[in-house]
Here is the input.
Amino acid sequence: MAGKKVRVLIAKPGLDGHDRGAKVICRALRDAGMEIIYTGLRRTPEEIVNAAIQEDVDVIGLSILSGAHNVLFPKIMNLLAEKGAEDIVVMAGGIIPDKDIPKMKKIGIAEIFLPGSSTKDIIEWIEKRIDK
Amino acid sequence: MKKDEDPKKNLKPRYQHWKNEGYSRSLKKSPPEKKKFTTISGKDIKELYTPLDLDGFEYQRELGFPGEYPYTRGIHPTMYRGQLWTMRQFSGFGTAEDTNERYKYLLSHGQTGLSVAFHLPTLMGIDSDNPLAQGEIGKCGVAVDSLADMEILFNGIPLDKITTSMTINPPAAVLWAMYIAVAEKQGVSPKVISGTIQNDILKEYIAQKTFIFPPRHSMKLIVDTFEYGAKEVPRWNTISISGYHIREAGSTALQELAFTLRDGIEYIEWALERGLNVDEFAPRLSFFFNAHNDFFEEVAKFRAARKIWAEVMRKRFKAKNPRSWWLRFHTQTSGVSLMAQQPYNNVIRVALQALAAVLGGTQSLHTNSLDETYALPSEEAVTIALRTQQIIAHESGVANTIDPLAGSYFVEKLTQEMEKGTKEYFRKIDEMGGMLKAIELGFPQKEIADSAYEYQKAVEEKAKLIVGVNAFQMEHEPIPVLHIDESVAKQQLTRLKQVRQTRNSSRAKAGLRDLKKAAEDSQNLLPYLLDCVKTYATLGEIIDSLKEVYGEYQEPITY
Here is the structure.
């Protein structure tokens, strides 16, 4: 597997259209040599999980600013488990209150990147998690 | 002519002398921490501004007097000496009851106008019982599915005395119809109600991405509101042409200004195409800008905005009524500039941004709350935000005189450069065939994404420092935040069910049929929308009927 590019799906669940963060992450990961698939806006949990499996990604990055993470993230994690795709690493970013973070970690979100996170940190984190 | 009659003649050599002998020599002795001095938008800033930077500057042509063309110094002759700006905090969460209570709280604490934040399903024209609404109900704003919610939202608030701004875009005409219907129920005529609907779809395609219909149909609906408003709701601002979201999406200050004003031009062209008279609807156009971190750049942006718009209206569109030349605007401090790290620092950021808006001559202002990187603001946080405006208004003294920064070599130069840059963007977009074409080509979207990425890189390379984030970091305790639990969803779904059960459903269906027919026949939809909302047809039902005629917009996926 050595030398193969890391594949990342950047996904926007929820109804909000705030895609600045998602797009900056897409560009930064691409510039770091990863392969990026971007879902576009307002994707359902089903659409996100299907795209991740079809595209055979290593990582899913969920970006949400609407406050619906408590409902949508568990759905996404359950669907991944149902479809036997628990090996895909899931990270998230956006507006997520501190007190929700333990809940999100508990359902299997590997890391939450809050506003102010640097793209460098995110890239390093992915490279550490996905050893290709 | 005596030698000292032209002060600039001596100035140039003196300036050069100072720059070489004074400034540069001193710099060599103590090299600066920063090598480049740029605004947050990446614009180079000189070490000093002098009369040499304002060559050919004529007071009357560039500035004039407040309330006089070209309005650089303000649209009103008295500005804040006559009346302070409206302190208008954008607010909405949970159910209509929750938000109604918050409005009454804000009004009792000196807020002078209302501004409604709707939850995302309402913004997207879908009902709370639509599967896509799961997890979103009451989260980002107040849930409004039908007239029943709107009646509760404004219960006990006299709509003849309070002005209301509603941040709503693709379904703006429907929510406006609901507001008019609530006013009528209070016995208040549409002729006297006043407020604003955002109703600006172009910036949605460009930046905020809350769209439903394809662009051409959206533009038609907007012109319907111009036409109806001019005749039936004459004190209502039928659009708030918004740069706020363009800036939040990552544009520079110049791009915010240029794209917003060019959007304004596009709306006017579409309305003229319909056959409307420019002076009938243009006085009801309003604007909405961002107040970001870079203080002087922001002040220049606001001042230039007024001057450019006055010229556009007078020269490009030959408007005769001076009210058509006025650029009236609302300002909100920058959401993206708020930081999750050391959140109390956000109070200071907001205060500086608000000060720029006031020195830029804003007509109304929303100050963000310190906790908004985490959630919608708590009551305590929103009170501090309102107090920030009151301190600027009543303690700082900046409102004592009109446009106090005028005549600053730096501010005037920046203002001129804003104007020049904006006109350059106008030229490019005109060449593309207008803003709608430019959007279809992805031009403004790409410009914004490029600027956003450049800025992120500058932050990561520490060319730009953000206190508490890439400099001066420290651990901090979590702050208390407002939590909207899922019981809100239950309440909302119960009410929606009740509405569907208790209304006269054949009347509701008939209304929707008539609406669809009117859309097919390209009639002005406002009278039909008013009929529909009064039957308690839901927002989702109304929008779905229109989707059958107009279809839905699919955005090209790019990054």
